[in-house]
Amino acid sequence: MQTQDLISRLATDLAPVSPNAVSRALNRALVLGLAGNTAVLAGVYGIGSDMPEQMLTAGFWIKLAFPLGTIAAALTLAGRLARPGCPSRRAWLKALAPVAAMLAVTVALKMATPPELRLGLPLGETGIGGLAGIVLLSLPALAAAMHAMKRLAPTRLVLTGAGIGLLAGAQGVFVYTLFRPASPGFMVDAWHVCAIPAVMGIGAILAPRILRW
Length: 213
Known about the structure:
InterPro entries: NrsF
Organism: Bordetella ansorpii
Oligomer: single chain
Keywords: Membrane, Transmembrane, Transmembrane helix
Helix content: over 70%
Low-confidence stretches: none
Transmembrane segments: 29-48, 60-79, 91-112, 127-145, 157-178, 190-211
Radius of gyration: 20 Å
Number of helices: 8
Strand content: under 5%
Structural class: mainly alpha
Protein name: Protein of uncharacterized function (DUF1109)
Distance between the termini: 26 Å
Mean pLDDT: 84
Number of domains: 1
């Protein structure tokens, strides 16, 4: 078979790709990831008994704004990383800004608070266990995002893994904050925020192996 004939046969079966294919795939992964995260949380930790009371407080909803904003920005970032050659620098800055801001606020708050009063701050009373818990909750979302990206066309695999890790980590923080509100007040625990870079690292390590064409 001549090369031109092969090209013609391959081109005959081509169908146009929907312009919304990427967003649909990522939105589906988002829903599946949140469902998986919730199932893991219910099975491992259970739903917080004080959740109904917490939902009546302003602090509960303000704390949810952080992971929701990060999810929205990370979803846009993932959409850019799924397209070859699509610039993503600005999307990275927008997605990382909430995480950096929250960590900066917690560090500044700790430094400005006398040592004897720091135990009452949401700076890490959950410790490594809280970080590990968020990472565990984020794994279903990371798997769903990896599966979606496998069907798309990412070329910067390490960055793509880090980007969907950012998305998955924010989903883990959202589910934990929603169903098991830990600390009072308006801020997310610092250890929970630190879990997001950890999930980004996991994604960056796994993506070149899973998403390789």
